[in-house]
Every structure is written in C-alpha cells, then in structure tokens.
Task: structure prediction
Amino acid sequence: MPSAMGRVLGTLTWPFEAICFMLMRLYDVSMYTPIQTITAPVVRLIPRTLSIGGKKRVVFSANFVTWSRTVLVIPIAVCLKIGQPTAAFWLVILHDYLDHVDGIVARVHRNVYGPVDDPILGGFLDAFCDKIVNCLALWSILVVTDYRGMTVLQSSVLIASCAVVILYEFTIGVVRVQDYFRAFYSREFGKVNSHDQRSSSDSTKAAMEGKTKEKLESLGIAFLCLAQGSEVPMDHWGGAAGVVCLVLCIRLAHASLDRKLKARRIQEKNSGHDSKLKRIESAPPGEMERIETVYNHNLRLRDSQASDDLSDSKHDESIQDKLDPVDPVDAVFTVGCFDLFHTGHEILLQRMRKMGRKVVVGVHDSASIYKNKRRMPIESTETRMRNVKVYADVVFCIASADPTDYIECVFDKKAGETAVYVRGDDWPTFPGMKAVERLMPIRLLPYTPGVSSTQLRKRVSVCLADAVEENHRDIFY
Result:
C-alpha cells in the first residue's frame, strides 16, 4: 500500500517537477550563464593572496565569498525591522547573486591555482550558510509581519509555509553537518565506500532539485520582504507570490531530504559487512602498543645483525665529517612528529646527546601535523611526547604548523648558551628554518636507512582507524 501511494504521488508530482526543471534550465541559460561570463574575468583579476608581514595571506577565495554573503542576514533583518522592505528585497537578491559568485570563484581558482581549496569543506559551507541565511530571514519576516489586518487563513498560510520551510532547512542542515564529517573522516582515513556512488542521472536530478529549491526559496523570501511595505502583506502581490514560491520549495526540500536519507541507509546497509570485518581486524586495547614494541625490537635486532662495529664506526665518521670536530655545545635542538617512535628516532636523539649537554625537542601536536602532512598521526600528542622524554631533557609541544614562535620562546638568547639545531638530511628544508638560522647553526644528520614512521604505518597490518579516532577524538567531536 505505501509503495502504491508513493507511485500515485510520484505520478501527480511529475508534471510539477518537469516544469520546475524546465524553469531551472531556462534560468541557467538566461541568468546564470551571463553572470558567469561577466564575473569570471573579474575574478581572475583579483589576487588570491597578498604579502602581509612578510607572509602570503589568502585574502580572496570561494569560502570568503560564502562567509561574506552569510553576514548579509544581519542587514536584511535590520532593514525589515526599521521598515525598509525594498532594501531588504535587494539584499536578498544580492545574497542570491553571491551564491553564484562563490561557485565561480571556486572554479576559476581551481583552473588557475590548482586544487587549493578543500572541495568537501567548500561544498559544505556553501550549502550550510544558505540554510543559516534562509532560516533567519524567514524568522525575521514572521517576527516583523503585522498580522492585525490579515485574516486567520492568511496568517495561517504565511506562518505554516515559513515554519515548514524552516523545519526542513534545519533538518537538512543537520544531515549536511553529519555528511560533512562522514566525508572528511572517509577521505582522511581511507574509509571510502565504493557503494556510495550515485549514477549520473541521480546526481543530475539531485543537483537540479537543489538549485531549483534554492532559487524558489530566495525568490519567496525576497517577495515576502517586498510585501512588508503593504499594510496587509498577504494582500500584496509579493505576499502571494512569496507563499507560492515557498510552497513549491517545500516539495523539493522534502525530495532533497528523502534522497539524502535514502543514500545514507543504502550506505550503512552496504557497509555493514565491512564494519563487522573492521571490528574483527581492529586491534584490541593495548594491542597497538604491543605490536609497536615487538616491531621496534625486531628492527633493532635486524639492524644489529646487519651492521657490525666497523659499519657503525664508518657511519659515525661520516657524521663527524658533517658536524665539524668541535666541543659539545650547551643545548641541541630539534623539532619533529615522532609518530610510532622507532629506531631512527632513537638514533637521532642519542646522537644529539653526544653533541651537547642538554637535548631540547619540540613535538608537533596532532592538528599541526595534519596541517603540514594532510594526515593524522597514529599516536596521540601525549604518547609521542612521553616517548621523546625518555631521551631528551626538555620536551615542549608545538601547536602550530610553523614552529618559529615556539622555538624563539624556548631559546634563551640572553643566557649566552651555545646551541645547534639538528635535522635529518632527508628533509633539509623545514617550517621555521629562517628563524632557526638566525638563532643557531643547523647540522644535518644522515637519514637512518630502512626505517621511518611512514614505513612502519604500512608494515603494521591491523586496521588503525579506531586507534587514530580514539587518540584524536577531541579534534573530530
């Protein structure tokens, strides 16, 4: 019975959807294409970055346009409150225009600068900010409307249409937030579900529904703003046109929400088997630490068997050639991630101990590692700092992608200490290098072959997603 009812409703709404999509295509041809043709060359002339304080800062991007148009909800509400409905009308139209501009900016920057913007974040901000503006604008209209001259039916229709649209927009906004974090998590940790792929026709239909809904909603809000200049808003043509646009928008909002929820149910159903496998393969509490310990132990045994005292002495001689034969300095500095602490880290810190009286190490926190490497470390910041503390005298946390400020704070110029900064020669240039060069000389140590955190991540065969999520839960939730 429910499926039969759905087929009946689908048959009845098909003409409506066909008309809406036809109007949307007409809008694309008559409005959007000219807007894009005129705006794109102007966007190319605006620089994306400017040099401020010796550093390049992003001053113009698609996200900046999105944030700017979101702020327009404030003057829209103010104009409605002070009795300037025409100004409110044009501000809504401006918001709708900027909704096109942020997409144009994203495409132009992608063509000119490459993939500089996060597409997942950009799409989420675009949709979510639309919902913030639409909901607050509709709420402002309901608050400032004078209901005294309106009939009960007129008041009911206005309030019901606005309230239903607000409810749908709020619900879709919640779903979009959940989908954003799901997509972000899947991208960063490889949990991409192959079943979560729509067909070309489904994607086109969903896009058309979304674009049509946004246009109808923007026009409805604009017309209702214009109707506030009349003594009886619902007797004004703008009031009637605005309600009609919102009623038409409700059908598309329902279809959009239904499509998103169906896609989620299909994804969860198809990923159920994978989830069971993940729970079996995931390491139980304490297993990760045991695996890392065993692996490091085996790695040390292999290194000791593969290299005798002669090779060690040759390796040390090559190090001394790079370091210059001088007396030990007062302090030896370095900065790193130290994820999955291994033999290479241990050798580096032991060599630092031979070079100076005090070993000072900065450890990047998880958020700064993500900014630099676009991936999360396996171990938490606390675990990595504890591992380093076994070999270092001072360990400090760096909560920024650029460690310059932290190094300058830790290094005491007035104390007159001699110092040296140590770095592996596999990465001779690094964030904060210019600041370090001003403070102390830099010495590059030979990279320990055959061992790295990246290799260790690949060698550990268990699923690490749960461990990563648990170690960095504060970043995601």
